[in-house]
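Journal club side-thread
Mid-discussion, someone asked how the predicted structure for our own chain would compare to the paper's figures. Pasting it here so we can look after the session.
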Amino acid sequence: MKMLTRKTEDYLEAILNITERKGYARIKDIASELHITPPSVTEMMQKLAKKNLVFYEKYSGVNLTEEGKVIAQAVKHRHDTFTTFLEIILVPTDIAEKDACELEHHLNPKTIEQFSRFVKFVKNAPMYPKWLTHFKEYCKTGQHLACEQD
């Protein structure tokens, strides 16, 4: 996979998110999603098209190439992993979303893999782990619950 800038990854992820919601992405949709101007998006789409990451023609929609889609899905997976992890540790969703955007670009791939494993482990646990209940109580009260011995 190509080494890309954070900005490029953000564009690809935005295009993926928009097309998953609407079925297509337009310049104004991408600009709105990223809170930037349409001319900035147009300029970036031209650059991404030259790198064969998007299909872009002036006055029509934007689509990810196969390579662009693979990269966007990887970025989205990292983002979703960090958002879920932060929500597990009781970070409010709006903050978790913003912080996930930071984390998804700055951590070592091995660290990201371990976060992903941890989130998958917790989400697929056969029963709600007791330690999560204990953690929630600790966050509320600052006190550890008495643990039962098995």
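Post-session note: Residues 6-65 form a domain with the Arc Repressor Mutant, subunit A fold (CATH 1.10.10.10).
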